[in-house]
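ARCHIVE CARD
Drawer: 12
Card no.: 0347
Subject: one protein chain, sequence and derived structure
Cross-reference: see card 0346
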Amino acid sequence: MTRRYVAQLKAADETGEATVALFDEAARGLLGASADELAALRDGSGTDGGKAYEGAVKASQFSTWVMRVQTRTQEYNGELRRRLAVHSLSPMDWGVEARRLVGLIDGVGA
């Protein structure tokens, strides 16, 4: 049996924060380990007392990523709910982002 990630996380930027669903491929990129590898750290009977597992999870916190998020609105019991899921995830490339922003500024002045 192969474990797969199905997780929720809180993502934030300058406009606010949102809870998003994160599935296997994106979660592997964020956490840097497969679900099986992380489960082995969690379940391991090592002498570190679970510190390796905690370290692996905490290493992904407060890091900067570029996310493509898919939004769906679903109705449940007559109430509309917005569902957000990470479609793709990649580490922030500050050079690429700077060039994109300069392009936006140049486009405004034209």
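Annotation on reverse: The chain has a mean pLDDT of 88. The chain has one domain: 6-109.
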